[in-house]
Task: structure prediction
Amino acid sequence: MSQDTTPAAPAPEPAANEPVGLGKPSPATAPVPTPDGLGTGPGDAPGTDPSGDEGTDYAAYDVPAGTVVVQGPSLLARVGAEVFGTFVLVLVGLGVAMYASLGSVGGGALGVALAFGIAVLAAAAAVGHVSGGHFNPAVTLGAALAGRTAWRDVLPYWLAQLMGGALGAAIVFIAIPSSLPEVLGKGDVRALFSGVANGYGEHSPLNALVTSGTSGASTAEFTLFAALVLELVATAVFVGVILGATDRRAHRALAPVAIGLALTVLLLVTIPATNGSLNPARSFAAALFSESWAWKQLWVFVVAPLLGAALAGLVYRAFAAEPPVEDNLLEDDDVYVTQEDVVVVESRQA
Result:
């Protein structure tokens, strides 16, 4: 498809009380100027190519002066931003979590939570204006249900987020020293990497700590129900914060900070129980390079965050939504007003 614009003859003055400039472009009803080579001269049927190419159709419509035109980043640019943002989030988060328990080298649960929070803050500030700064399939679903993101973008965003997360986890995995698992008594690299995967029951971080501290005499397992509830509620709160902080009525310059702090404190709540997911892309990325138990429990960290995000999106739409507009969270659109009447001609292959 190609587009061309040429100035049209001055439009007649609007009648009294007639709205100007904010409606959709209306189809041209009179002969309109066309780009070079299309012509509307004698013998040329309007909307056909005089060169004889009958496989191309042309459509023309008027854009009146004063029309507000909104143009955002292309889908390719937005998908690329989601790959990058999710890559940064998973690389930093899992990279810190990988060595969090190694004394002064690691940062413990607080270090992990801060790593994820600061990473999402930085990524949102860097490319949030391009894609909206989702970096999480749950956020994309919640935004779509809230009417803030187009449904046609959901699948491309999900694929981009899974790809970015997998790349980030791969970097962390291949950087693990080959001798480290043996030193730590973990068997192999996959067994060591499984420590950053999300899990419940015997794979809860708190249970591993209690079991290790008591030489197996005691356990502190979080049940499947507890894991589902914690992940669902935490993700609902997180997505609710995102929808509120990025609302046009809020001070959006502070949105990345609010989102990063919210993720940090919610991870501090969930890390002892499930290692803190709130993000199916993060859980998927960790499971890719972990032992088989991580794959068996992965569904929990896909279903619960998606349900929590759906709940937040529906509540926002019901009680807090502004007039319908797809502003896609942090994404910036280019908005301009036409200064004169313009005719747009589009070509379509039949």
